[in-house]
Amino acid sequence: MIKTPIQDFVSLFRTKGTSSVYAGGIRRFMDFVYDHHRKSRVTSPSEQAEYEALAARYLSDNQRDHSRDLFLFIRADSEKGAPGTVRSHALAVRLWFAENDIELSAKEKMRVRRVTPRGGRLTNIKYIDVGVLREILTLADIRIKAFILVAACTGARIGELRALTWSCVTFPDRKKFPDKLTELYIPKSKNQSARRVWITREAEDALLAWKNNACSIYLVRAGIVSKNLGRVADTSGEKVFPFCVQSVYERWDAILKQLGYFSKDPLTRRNQLNFHRLRGFFKIRVLPVIGSEMSELALGHCDAYGHAYDGIPDGEMEKLFRKCEPVLTIVPAYGAARDMSIQVEEMQKMRSELDTLRASLAAIARNGGGIISLPISQG
User: Fold this and answer.
1) I need a surface site. Which of 30, 152, 215, 223 has the fewest CB within 10 A?
2) CA distance linking residue 180 with residue 202, whole number of Å
3) pLDDT tens digits, 348-373
């Protein structure tokens, strides 16, 4: 029987995100202990088998000084990783030790705590404004455009969007409900709570274009020319976004490079304008409209009771999202944003006519009261 000590351990956790982070931490530990070098960022099935063999070898080696291995691993990991990442990796190894009956003494635990780094994010991140996002969308194909617009106007996490099925999307009947927003139901988020979010009209149009015109073609062709379209993660046809997350990152980075916006932090070597910054874009845009507490709930963060939207009717949350639609619309041609754009154009037209009228009145005064026809619009 093939031993899978890493998979057996991470299967104990509820979320894929936690399982993935902890698996990565243990693999990083194996890299350090056995001077192993992975071939690429994404661990292939064959490499996963290699790591399982290394993990089984480590657990069966009674000569290992486990606390020293962990101590030195944290020091080495701290030289390359951000404090939060290093802490996650260290915790993964400690829990893996405990699960496999490797106990550290109080003194050893104290040494590990001392070497574990403190602090938060080190990457000097940049934020996305409307202008930059408009440029990005001009170079995005329909699948990435829909993904970006839905992410930007909901603040949803990448994992939450990739988990969506078409049954979670409610498109309103535009003949009956011309102003109703399209609703997305997120059944399970990072904090294990369900919630509803609503998208702008421009995001709805992009999502419908993806659903009706491109999604089925993508599923057929992506396996053939995956380099251009992105790798498929689900071929059932049920997923709203069936492509793998790595293809999103790759296309996002490629667009940033084309526009000259791609840059890496010199210390952490991470993209300063990564895709996750769309959550920051959402918060910055809605914060002045609905306030700090409601913007946190809209992002799917827990309230004081441990749940997003606890005690708040969906109808009230939809009203808040509707208030935010103008500031979340990237190209002002939809809904309230469109109405505001029209009003601005009308005001500019009225100002122009007023300036013309003033110039004509000044001409009348200069000509001693002569009759001059005024070019005032009849509209």
Assistant:
1) 223
2) 13
3) 778 888 888 888 888 777 776 555 45
CA distance 115 to 79: 12
Name the nearest CA neighbour of 247 among 218, 278, 283: 218
Q: pLDDT confidence of 213, banded at 50, 70, 90?
A: confident
Contact present, 28 and 89 (Cβ < 8 Å) = yes
Concatenated DSSP letters of 163-193: T-BGGGEE---TTT-TTPPEEEEES--TTS-
Nearest to 117 by CA among 92, 69, 82: 82
User: Tokens 């998979």 belong to which residue?
Assistant: 7
Report the alpha-carbon distance of residue 109 to residue 285 in Å, rounded.
Answer: 44
Contacts of 62 by beta carbon, 8 Å cutoff, 6+ apart: none
Residues 6+ apart with CB under 8 A from 238: 165, 166, 167
Task: Please classify residue 57 by burial: count the beta carbons closer than 10 Å to its beta carbon, then call 0-12 exposed, 13-18 middle and 19+ buried.
Answer: middle
Distance CA 23, CA 25 (A): 5
Q: Which of 328, 14, 23, 320 is nearest to 189 (CA)?
A: 14
Torsions phi, psi for 264 (to 5 deg): -110, 145
Do residues 67 and 29 make contact, with C-beta atoms less than 8 angstroms apart?
no
Distance CA 359, CA 291 (A): 45
**pLDDT tens, 248-266?**
888 899 999 999 999 988 8
| The model's pTM | 0.71
Structure tokens at 3: 């031993």
Closest of 110, 113, 197, 115 to residue 151, by C-alpha: 197
Element (H, E) at 195: strand 195-199
Backbone angles phi, psi at 21, to 5 degrees: -65, -45
Report which of 68, 75, 64 is spatially closest to residue 107, judged by C-alpha positions. 68
Rounded Cα distance, 158 and 147, in Å: 9
Q: What is the DSSP letter of 104?
A: P
